[in-house]
Request: fold
Amino acid sequence: MAKECIFCRIAAGEVPSDIVYQDEDFLAFRDISPQAPIHILIIPKTHIASSAELTEEQHELVGRLIITAKNLAEKEGVAKEGYRLVINCGSEGGQVVPHLHLHLLGGRRLADKLG
Ligand code: AMP
Reply:
């Protein structure tokens, strides 16, 4: 756990959040500033600063991160209509919180452009 990391603090239960799922490796909670009716962040509980920090050995973790998002999309009722999964990396990628997280966005038609 990184002491100053807000998402590590959420994972440790030190900061409240609207948790929708967790297991040994992942935590999923609702974004505090939702950009869509369904906006969930899925994080690995272990601190990884961004996708830029990932190693080859973590490929299984990354695979399970996406499977977790897929399962949540089904649970939240957006799988049939469709949804978007986003990982921002670094300043130009729009990453604000330096703890790897996958955005699950759904429940409305999302803009065609990626920005
Ligand atoms: P990113 O720009 O990809 O780093 O996304 C960070 C996301 O974290 C933003 O959508 C924020 O609204 C969200 N966020 C920041 N702090 C919290 C928090 N305490 N609880 C839930 N979501 C948060």
